[in-house]
Amino acid sequence: MQIKVVANVLKANRDVASENRALLKELGIKVVNLISSPGAGKTTLLERTIADLKEELPLAVIEGDLMTTRDGERIGRHGVPVVQINTGGGCHLDAAMVKKALEELPLKEIKLLIIENVGNLVCPSSFDLGEDEKVVIISVPEGDDKPAKYPVTFRRTRLCLLNKIDLLPYSNFNVDNFYRDVRALNPEMKVLQVSALTGEGMEAWYNYLRGLVQSN
Ligand code: MG
Ligand code: ZN
After folding, report:
1. What's 111's domain CATH number?
2. Could you say which DSSP state residue 147 is in?
3. 215 C-alpha vs ligand 2 centroid, how far in Å?
4. Closest ligand (CA of 10)
5. At a CB cut-off of 8 Å and minimum separation 6, what does 163 contact?
6. How far apart are CA 105 and CA 2, in angstroms?
7. DSSP strands (E only) in the chain
8. How far is the centre of ligand 2, averaged over its atoms, from the C-alpha of 108 (Å)?
9. Are the C-beta atoms of 71 and 104 separated by less than 8 Å?
10. Could you tell me which of 151, 152, 133, 150 has the C-alpha nearest to residue 192?
11. How far, in Å, is the centroid of ligand 2 from the Cα of 129?
12. Which H helix or E strand runs over 40?
């Protein structure tokens, strides 16, 4: 019985996600779903991305958090449309939440929508939101064993950003072990090493976003 309930929830979510996807595709908007643990630097990475790309790529943000509008306020200061979703303790965003948030955004004016999921590496990857791509962010202080511990998220994602590489000299994070574990789970996974703090490697991430927006 338990399993059937979960299956029904996921099926209902998939139906709404398909509606979101159809709407966004019709409007020519590409969507990225950012997934990471709390503290991996999603919001900081987004802030730098927005500051560097907003003139070139009209974009909007949906911010998912358990509580508070702090991250939404940080993004809003950069002058891009943002909707904050508070899940009230829920550990992931679902497609119905995103559908509601879409009603609040100026969809005709944007080409890229970035969704910052709730900080959690377990279940967000199970809930399709209608995105084109899921992107997983791991930061150096979390340790190189994250892929092995959260295999499902890594199997469902095609791009991983390894953030906070400015901290590599001060940590025992083993980049070779990290790549080995990632590739074992997902041979197709692309990894980009970035520092949202110093800007190192960010151009490759921007090129990825540019390519996504131009793709059909
Ligand atoms: Mg955040
Ligand atoms: Zn969850």
Report:
1. 3.40.50.300
2. H
3. 30
4. 2
5. 40, 41, 45, 137, 138, 139, 140, 194, 195, 196
6. 37
7. 30-36, 59-65, 82-86, 112-116, 133-139, 159-163, 190-193
8. 31
9. no
10. 133
11. 13
12. none
Q: How confident is the model over 44-99, as pLDDT tens digits?
A: 999 999 999 999 999 999 999 999 999 999 999 999 999 999 999 999 999 999 99
Residue 35 CA to residue 197 CA, distance in Å, equals 19
The residues near 64 (Cβ < 8 Å, ≥ 6 apart) are: 85, 87, 92, 93, 97, 115, 116, 117, 118
Range of the domain at 107: 2-214
How many domains, in total, are found in the chain? 1
CA 71 to ligand 1 center in whole angstroms = 5
Indicate the residue type of 118: V
pTM for this structure?
0.95
36 CA → ligand 1 middle, Å: 9
